[in-house]
Write a structure and sequence with these properties.
Elements (H helix, E strand, L loop, with lengths): L2 H12 L3 E7 L5 E6 L7 H19 L5 E3 L5 H16 L4 E10 L6 E5 L7 E5 L7 H13 L3 E10 L11 H9 L2 E7 H8 L3 E2 L2 E2 L3 H14 L4
Parallel strand pairs: 3-4, 3-6, 6-7, 7-8
Antiparallel strand pairs: 1-2, 4-5, 9-10
Helix pairs in contact: 2-3
Protein name: Orotate phosphoribosyltransferase
Pfam families: Pribosyltran
Family: Belongs to the purine/pyrimidine phosphoribosyltransferase family. PyrE subfamily.
Length: 227
């Protein structure tokens, strides 16, 4: 596992973004883990978050893209901090763009988007916190494609939960790939998280012990995506 992935797992734990216990998800599923990207709130956390996204995007997609698109609302700060980090780490200016939940009908920046306007020929990387069902892509992809003649290079999320999506067989990221034809990736997967944290002391504590590992395994027996 790459060093930045190991560091990102520790970063999620330290930032109280990745939690373990008993959680009821929006879907109604009872999960032994929960990820809340809204817990990244400080300047230093957001700076590091942008760097991890930038490294993962560079690793997966290289430099051949022009725009980072972050769907409202959580995708807005993600696209901004990642564009900054990409400039600092790789010396390439990437534009950011996000959609508005409600169209602005006045001012110089009126319209359906924030940040850079999408232009014909743009190559776009989508960026989100986590994709559980793929519903946000149903709303976002038509907006992006309808704004200009662009190519969507791929999607990057922070954590792949690796559980079945709406289709009941594949994970949401694979469903998005099959539906829209662009690549889908995550900085880390839950398999990476379990591999790295299982029975490994971190700051004097074992976060995923045998009991929690058994609960995670049981969860994936029921909700895990078919590989």
């Amino acid at each position: 596992m790459e060093q930045y992935k190991q560091e990102f797992i520790e970063f999620m734990v330290d930032s109280d973004v990745l939690k373990f216990g008993e959680f009821t998800l929006k879907s109604g599923r009872k999960s032994p883990f929960f990820m809340n990207a809204g817990a990244y709130v400080t300047g230093s956390q957001l700076k590091r978050l942008g760097e991890y996204y930038a490294k993962a995007i560079h690793d997966r997609y290289g430099d051949d893209f022009d725009v980072l698109f972050g769907p409202a609302y959580k995708g807005i700060p993600l696209s901004v901090v990642t564009a900054i980090a990409y400039s600092e780490l790789y010396g390439k200016e990437i534009r950011y763009c996000s959609d508005r939940k409600e169209e602005k009908d006045h001012g110089a920046d009126k319209g359906s988007f924030l940040g850079s306007k999408l232009k014909d020929g743009d190559r776009v990387v989508m960026i989100e916190d986590v994709t559980t069902s793929g519903k946000s892509m149903e709303e976002t992809v038509p907006k992006v494609k309808g704004a200009a003649d662009v190519t969507i290079v791929g999607l990057m999320v922070s954590l792949d939960r690796m559980e079945i999506g709406k289709g009941g067989v594949k994970c949401a990221l694979d469903e998005v790939h099959d539906l829209y034809g662009f690549e889908t990736n995550a900085i880390v997967t839950m398999a990476d998280v379990v591999e790295y944290l299982y029975n490994r002391p971190y700051k004097g504590k074992v976060i995923i012990d045998d009991t929690l590992k058994a609960a995670i395994d049981a969860y994936y027996e029921q909700y895990g995506a078919k590989q």
